[in-house]
Amino acid sequence: MHSDIVISQSDGRPMYLQIMEQVKQRVAVGEWAAGDQIPSIRQLAIALRVSVITIKRAYLELEREGVILTQQGRGSIIAPNPGLSPQLYHEELSERLEEVARLGDLLGLSSEEIGRRTKEAANRLIEARPTKEIV
Amino acid sequence: MNYSMVKSLILKDWYFHRRAILLSLAGGVVSLGIVALGGKAGFFIGLVFLISIIITIAATLVMNTLVGERENQTLAFVMSLPISYLEYTTAKILGNLLIFVPFWLTLVAGSLALIVAAPVIHGLFAFTAIMAVEILVSTCLMIAVALVTESKGWTISAMIAGNLAINVVGYIVAHIPGIANGMWGKAIQWSPAASISLATEFALIALLLGGALFIQSRKREFI
Amino acid sequence: MNDLSVHFDGVGKRYPHFSLENIHLELPTGSIMGFIGANGAGKSTTIRILMGLVHQDEGSVRVLGHSMPAEQAAAKLDIGFVSEDMRLYGQATLAWHMDFLRPIYPRWDQSYAEELARRFDLKLQQKIKGLSHGQRVKAALLLALARSPRLLVLDEPTTGLDPVARVEVLDELMAVLADEDRTILFSSHNTLDVEQISDQITFIDRGRIIDSDDKEAFLDRWRRLRLVLPPDGVVPRLPGVVEVGGSSRLPVLTTNRYEPVMVSVCNDLGATVQAVDSMTLEEIFVANVHSRRERLTA
Q: Which of C14, C45, C68, C87 is the best substitution to test chain B (most B C-beta atoms within 10 A)?
């Protein structure tokens, strides 16, 4: 399977997080369906020019979250029920919201102002959304 | 000892010097021809050419194959090959001898044949043989110094010392009674003194190369 | 099969003005190790000892199961070595070098060599002396790779390369690792290259290994904490802090033993954690070297 994962060196986040996020996105938009074979750790490492251990870590975390299944000697597949459970996204959302709150506070914004800005961002996303529904 | 590796290294050095050797061989034959043309002038001019060609090739070979590997930083490439340092040293000593000696021997044999063939100078046979081997001794001195020091400066010093030695030895040999007598005569004379001189020279060669090999085997840093 | 392709145990080498001391190094088969150090830190000496080109004064070195330097000829049959100070024969062509090496290495891969020449844009019949620096590095790398070595040892392979050539070289290194039995050790002072492709990372400074770990552990362990202290507040004592910078009210702590729980610990001690920054390998390296040098001079 060809992977179009792109990682950025100037993105502040660790590379394994970038890889995890992009795998999840592909599952979320339906490009990678349940049961699909995904690239092996080494294949992806070579394709992305990123160390094996980084990909290994991303896959381990993805497995822990129930997004993929790794079978000994047979590589990895997208889990039948890729546990991209609402709970997982909710957890991440809370984390990001806290970050937003902290940044807002740092800029001296009121909580009303922070709320207003958040709403605007949500509206922009809906307007820009392609016809395809995001799960 | 991995002889196929040693062979590869020797063939490599031959490959890089084959043109110079063959050209010089042709030059040596021309010099011999000048000697053969006869006349006192022809004799000396030819001889000077001949000796210069032999010494130049010896110096070029030693400089390029021994000092050059380090100066041109190709030593790291050579030492990345599956060889031990002893194999490297062996390849360098054997290589220099195998490339130089046939060239040298051809010209020496030509000179001696010329002496035998010429009607008047048979008496020079012993002196010429001793001096030819002395050139070999000087070459081995250069090989030993270049191997051990891997330095351009020291190798040039050895080259100068070797060339001076040729003159000094020539003077001494020409005054050894057993050799000096009949040197300009018409008959070939081989005296015990001549044998001793040759034996001494070969012993020196063995000592120089054996010593270089010994010192090399005790080195702990190769690059 | 031995799981370690390279194993240094207590290796030392003394020179009049420099010494390598107590070097321990373990490189698992199938992985790639980045060896980072400033110029003169001892990277090249370590690599020469690995290759058997310099004999250690003490300690044991095993490479691909062979004891070094005694069994270097056997070991080097399976090693591809390229160093920054290595030159090919200027008066010969790349094709000559390939013909020279082919009979020496039983696993020489001629079609791969020709394929690499195409990809690296090298002409087989061109003499080495006519090549640019980048082309020479790629030619040397080609000659090392086509040996199909089980261990690839590269001393500063990307130094002096333009960005395109660097990516080409890194691509080939990664391609080597498609075969799980092959291992790479490469030294660099370019931490970006090392950070991207290495599994294992070893820092060396002034002849000593100052840290060695797998890369993810490195990046996880090191963090910079930006704190805000109340007036008259004290900087909380946290584990693994190697550096305290910033101002008195806004201190910045660098730790090499970060745990997420540190944030709440700080908050409990009255210090607000403004941010927890992850660090690049370069920042980690520099902080590591600084803290070690300070400890030595203290």
A: C87
Instruction: Output phi, psi for C251, to 5 deg.
Output: -75, 150
Using one digit for the tens of pLDDT, what is the confidence trace for C68-120? 999 999 999 999 999 988 999 999 999 999 999 999 999 999 999 999 999 89
* Tally of helices (H runs) and strands (E runs) in chain C: 10, 14
In this predicted model, what pLDDT tens digit does every residue of B210-222 receive, in sequence order?
Answer: 999 999 888 877 7
Chain B residues inside the 8 Å CB shell of C101: 81
The C-alpha atoms of residue C91 and residue B12 are separated, in whole angstroms, by: 12
Length of chain B: 223
Mean pLDDT of the region B156-183: 88
Structural domains of chain C, ranges and CATH numbers in brackets: 4-218 (3.40.50.300), 223-278 (no CATH)
Question: A8 by DSSP, 3-state: which?
Answer: coil
The pLDDT tens digits of the residues spanning C163-188 come to 888 888 888 888 888 888 899 998 98
Angle at B132 between CA B131 and CA B133, to 5 degrees: 90
Chains B and A make contact, 3+ CB pairs within 8 Å? no
Which residue type, as a one-letter code, is found at position B173?
A: V
Q: Which residue has the tokens 């990516």?
A: C167
- Residues B142 and B221: their CA atoms lie apart, in Å, by 21
Q: Residue B113 and residue B130: Cα distance in Å, rounded?
A: 15
Q: If 0-12 CB within 10 Å is exposed, 13-18 middle and 19+ buried, where does residue B151 land?
A: middle
Q: Please report the sign of the dihedral spanned by the C-alpha atoms of residue A83, residue A87, residue A92, residue A96.
A: positive
Tell whether domain A15-78 is in CATH 2.60.40.1930. Answer: no
Q: Over 50: is that where the pLDDT of A48 sits?
A: yes
φ, ψ of residue C107 in degrees (nearest 5): -100, 20
Residues 6+ apart with CB under 8 A from C5: C27, C28, C29, C63, C64, C150, C151, C183
Tell me how far apart the alpha carbons of residues B89 and C192 are, in angstroms, rounded to a whole number. Answer: 41
Contact between C126 and C117 (Cβ < 8 Å): no
CA angle B193, B195, B201 (to 5 degrees): 105
Q: How many CA atoms lie within 13 A of B131 on its CB side?
A: 25
CB distance C215 to C31 below 8 Å? no
In chain B, where the domains are located: 3-217
For residue C171, the chain A residue with the least C-alpha distance is A49
CA distances from A90 to A82, A93, B171, C87 (A): 16, 5, 102, 58
pLDDT band of residue C231 (cuts 50, 70, 90) is confident
Average pLDDT over residues B44-55: 89
Cis peptide before A82 (omega within 30 of 0): no
Token duo for residue C255: 């730790």
Please tell me the number of Cα atoms within 13 Å of C122 on its side-chain side. 30
- Interface probe with C: pick from B77, B90, B219, most Cβ of C within 10 Å: B77
Domain layout of chain A by residue ranges: 15-78, 86-128
> β-pairing, C32-36 with C200-205?
parallel
